[in-house]
């Protein structure tokens, strides 16, 4: 009989240390359940509510995934590069070559946000204290915030905004890579066309040099005329060499960036005029950073306001204790100024968004005016070149009749060649300006492919 009583007592002592932590967990989970789990939307002061709502800033759903209208808009963006054109070919090659570091950063932010979505659950951890030089008191502690002035909700908001900023950064990074590749391709095409114009001019100038040499050898002219024409031919030859070197350099850089030389690819695609949409990426990034700042301010503000928490601890011997706690900088000196500073931080974030919008709008308007000016100049210069070519024919006839010198003829020819090169460069300058607008709006890459 005594043996049975002792065994029963030992069993109760063995059960108690195991059951007590479970009881503490059940109590705190019941508290969090009374406040509402992550599926329930509550006031901003409740720590147990994830931020919900349709539209507006991003938030996290019950599964810890970021629901963001901004990211949805990024996915819907369509590239303005004409399908099947040279620009689309180069852009696809650039995107397929390697992966962006911003992509890995976005994955990190999404994982961090998923972890942050569980912050409404109680915290569980050990508590070890040195009670004396020879003994250690250990316990298992669980804490649950009941009323934290929206701190944990703000932490989730911060994580969601962090994901949005990383997503926009990824889009900006991929668009910049495509822009860099296309700009190199445009430079290579421009160098090739200007080299062709210069090479034709060099052939003609070499013929003029041959004529002056014959005149000098026949005693019809002194060496001064020959030296002038020869110098002009050498200048054209040097210009041709620089264009060829520039084309080779651009193609080499493009091959390193895209993994292809594009030897058989020629011509440039015509991009559509700016439609005024979508919103520039710089504005979206600033909006995400502002949302992140707002969340930081909310976290800091919650620390200055009173909050209530519940805690329970289980000692090594199975004793269960618990209670409520009041936290927050309620009586702290400078609390009013701190709250005012937080309000000013929110205003600064809003102003940064407005500044980013004004700066991007101003730049896009400037690029639009530049495109219009270049297009008008392209049309005007075309008419001037046609007139100059007619003048060259007249100068040639007058030279043959002895009324013009060869120096005058070569001078007119050199001016015409320079005009042709400037005129040919205009369409490439227009293409680069339109590319920059597309880069700012983030429409060089399809959103679905990202």
Automatic annotation (TrEMBL):
Key word Transmembrane present: yes
Chief location of this protein within or outside the cell: membrane
Disordered, as annotated region: 39-63
Domain of life of the organism encoding this protein: Bacteria
Keywords from the named record: Cell outer membrane, Membrane, Transmembrane, Transmembrane beta strand
GO molecular function per UniProt: efflux transmembrane transporter activity; porin activity
Record's protein name: Outer membrane efflux protein
Location(s), subcellular: Cell outer membrane
């Amino acid at each position: 009989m005594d043996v049975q009583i002792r065994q029963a007592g030992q069993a109760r002592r063995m059960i108690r240390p195991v059951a007590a932590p479970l009881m503490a967990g059940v109590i705190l989970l019941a508290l969090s359940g009374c406040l509402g789990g992550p599926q329930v939307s509550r006031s901003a002061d409740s720590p147990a509510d994830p931020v919900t709502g349709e539209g507006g800033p991003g938030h996290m759903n019950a599964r810890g995934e970021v629901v963001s209208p901004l990211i949805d808009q990024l996915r819907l963006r369509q590239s303005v590069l004409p399908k099947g054109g040279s620009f689309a070919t180069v852009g696809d090659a650039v995107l397929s070559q390697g992966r962006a570091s911003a992509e890995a950063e976005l994955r990190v932010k999404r994982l961090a946000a998923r972890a942050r979505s569980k912050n409404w659950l109680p915290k569980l951890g050990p508590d070890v204290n040195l009670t004396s030089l020879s003994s250690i008191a250990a316990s298992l502690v669980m804490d649950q915030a009941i009323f934290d002035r929206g701190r944990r909700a703000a932490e989730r908001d911060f994580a969601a905004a962090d994901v949005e900023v990383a997503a926009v950064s990824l889009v900006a990074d991929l668009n910049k890579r495509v822009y860099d590749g296309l700009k190199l391709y445009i430079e290579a095409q421009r160098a090739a066309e200007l080299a062709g114009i210069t090479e034709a001019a060099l052939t003609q100038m070499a013929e003029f040099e041959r004529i002056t040499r014959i005149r000098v050898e026949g005693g019809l002219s002194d060496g001064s005329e020959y030296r002038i024409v020869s110098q002009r031919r050498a200048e054209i030859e040097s210009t041709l060499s620089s264009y060829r070197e520039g084309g080779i350099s651009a193609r080499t850089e493009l091959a390193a960036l895209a993994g292809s030389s594009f030897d058989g690819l020629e011509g440039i695609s015509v991009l559509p005029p700016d439609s005024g949409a979508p919103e520039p990426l710089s504005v979206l990034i600033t909006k995400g950073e502002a949302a992140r700042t707002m969340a930081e301010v909310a976290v800091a503000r919650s620390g200055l306001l009173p909050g209530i928490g519940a805690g329970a601890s289980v000692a090594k011997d199975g004793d269960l204790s618990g209670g409520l706690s009041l936290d927050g900088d309620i009586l702290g000196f400078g609390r009013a100024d701190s709250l005012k500073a937080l309000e000013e931080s929110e205003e600064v974030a809003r102003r940064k968004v407005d500044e980013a919008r004004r700066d991007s709008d101003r730049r896009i308007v400037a690029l639009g005016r530049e495109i219009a000016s270049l297009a008008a100049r392209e049309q005007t210069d075309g008419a001037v070149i046609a007139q100059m070519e007619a003048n060259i024919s007249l100068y040639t006839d007058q030279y043959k009749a002895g009324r013009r010198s060869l120096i005058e003829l070569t001078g007119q020819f050199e001016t015409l060649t320079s005009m042709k090169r400037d005129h040919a460069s205009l369409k490439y300058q227009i293409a680069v300006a339109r590319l920059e607008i597309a880069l700012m709006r983030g429409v060089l890459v399809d959103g679905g492919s990202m």
